[in-house]
């Protein structure tokens, strides 16, 4: 009976399988149809591929390993591999604030920015809608002289006051030949509306600013496809592609047009990290502190954890209490402990200043902030080190120590000469992965100090306690300037360092050989 | 004799007691702060000036602090992620451990390498994906806990497959061979032999995944913008982002309540979790 149910051979199991697969298919197909309806082609294609993969895997006989892996592979590819690949690719692009879009969008953006209103800044109140044939149309009422015209994308024609209806405030509420859009239609057509141009003659046109107002404008900046240049018809200036993701004035290359695009820059981001003094100096500072932080974190937590393990390895009064109580920091959610510590270090209200009867801004000075980070990390990390150390201590045969003491070594000597090297050998891989973990320990920096304090005189975003990962985060998602390209390059360097370390550890622990 | 043992043990007690005070310090302050309605301990005494549970009741009554929603969101998302990621991880680990197929070795190495990549730096790419999903199915995209759940599940295979494969490798091959001779199919071997055998390890993996998700902060803070859709981690963090002194009391109360389930889970499964740690976990 139970074999029939679980074995995926009996009829019940088969039914169950088809029910689950069918329900999943139904859900996916529904999402695909919605996606197609909303013109989200990429999503639809990805989901169609996923649906096909699922059904082929589970309906076709054979390929048993894939039946176990496919769900994981699908999620992993969509949410991990794709974004990671994207980040790696972006490290080769000049992708930063002002250069976020692709080139065609940037050209469209420059064209849109290259508009100029007429000299008197003529504006219209607009009653926007569609003609019965589905064409965009509007009644434009000059805000100054209140003349009214009927405008389509083909041009304007006069319209009599008798054909429009106004409310008591004089605002047009209806017009013959125009059906106003509903709120929903308006919201979805937002970008279409702002791109509308109602020609007014003399190279001028009415450009909607939202759904109710339009401005009389003319195109000053024009783009020439064959030479890939922009020309300003008023000043005669010519702008050329500067190869760095912007159109720049031919006469003065420092003058660039907004927006730019994310251009391929090969190794420029990496070069900046090494060559450009403005980027390199903070980077090196952060890099050095990251290494120091990771070493100090592992060193202090391991020292305290190991000492504790030694202290508690033999029968001792209250040992159970010590053990139980001292692993609490490991059990409490770490984000919370960090926030609590942040409160304790608060200058005006914190318990630490209260305890010491001082009034120190711990996070205001670079060295006190760094010390605070190490101290808090010690609190968070020593229980883990204690746990693994005491595990390792138990695995070392006591004969070794006895042999050493017979040879005349004191307890201390025996420990340092015999046990410690063995312990480090046993714990080596764990210490290295702990190093790698702290190397990327974003939470403690971000939640405790936010990377600060920063040097306000230089305006650099890197703070005294920033480690590479928090620096990369700030570089990519900072509040004023975002440089995703540079951030990706920093990520790649971290990836390289941590990846090498991990590979080394795995080689040592022989995991890869037994694959 | 007993005296010398006492003296020899003295340093052990001294060290342990120093660490007990070190460990207890923030915990004590938080508990006292949570019980002090004035919301601070910047007075001369180390005991609350007044004593009341008003900080706790505030959490559940103040409409600006949807603490219950935060807790519910965190518990839902952490449980769902734990269960799903263990299912995915176990199935993947089974395939990697018991079957030989093309691409197996490369697949395992790729899982590991991608895992080493500081993944949340691909945030902006994940953001774009979630935005696309949001436009089609709002319930699974940006701003919803189920969208966040999808992202967490994405990483599940990488983390858990390796962890669980290590354990499955220790189950002797003879076991499945004899089952196969008895006529069991692969799914039968998986569900009837491996699943029960691995259930303690699966439980530990689930607990670790639960704790990890509960603690996750970066993705959650980026994706959950609505105040009542936040997780506890994001809610409490943004809570202290403002006027520290004013909300320190409710924050302390909130963190105590949020910690309790995790501390209980951790302590009750302590033995298994520690076993998993010392078995040479890849991540520290």
UniProtKB/TrEMBL annotation, chain B:
<dbReference type="InterPro" id="IPR000515">
    <property type="entry name" value="MetI-like"/>
</dbReference>
<feature type="transmembrane region" description="Helical">
    <location>
        <begin position="189"/>
        <end position="214"/>
    </location>
</feature>
<feature type="transmembrane region" description="Helical">
    <location>
        <begin position="247"/>
        <end position="267"/>
    </location>
</feature>
<keyword id="KW-1003">Cell membrane</keyword>
<dbReference type="GO" id="GO:0042956">
    <property type="term" value="P:maltodextrin transmembrane transport"/>
</dbReference>
<feature type="transmembrane region" description="Helical">
    <location>
        <begin position="108"/>
        <end position="129"/>
    </location>
</feature>
<keyword id="KW-0813">Transport</keyword>
<dbReference type="InterPro" id="IPR035906">
    <property type="entry name" value="MetI-like_sf"/>
</dbReference>
<feature type="transmembrane region" description="Helical">
    <location>
        <begin position="12"/>
        <end position="31"/>
    </location>
</feature>
<feature type="transmembrane region" description="Helical">
    <location>
        <begin position="149"/>
        <end position="168"/>
    </location>
</feature>
<keyword id="KW-0812">Transmembrane</keyword>
<feature type="domain" description="ABC transmembrane type-1">
    <location>
        <begin position="71"/>
        <end position="269"/>
    </location>
</feature>
<protein>
    <submittedName>
        <fullName>Unannotated protein</fullName>
    </submittedName>
</protein>
<dbReference type="GO" id="GO:0005886">
    <property type="term" value="C:plasma membrane"/>
</dbReference>
<dbReference type="Pfam" id="PF00528">
    <property type="entry name" value="BPD_transp_1"/>
</dbReference>
<keyword id="KW-0762">Sugar transport</keyword>
<feature type="transmembrane region" description="Helical">
    <location>
        <begin position="75"/>
        <end position="96"/>
    </location>
</feature>
<dbReference type="InterPro" id="IPR050901">
    <property type="entry name" value="BP-dep_ABC_trans_perm"/>
</dbReference>
<dbReference type="GO" id="GO:0015423">
    <property type="term" value="F:ABC-type maltose transporter activity"/>
</dbReference>
<keyword id="KW-1133">Transmembrane helix</keyword>
<keyword id="KW-0472">Membrane</keyword>
<comment type="similarity">
    <text>Belongs to the binding-protein-dependent transport system permease family. MalFG subfamily.</text>
</comment>
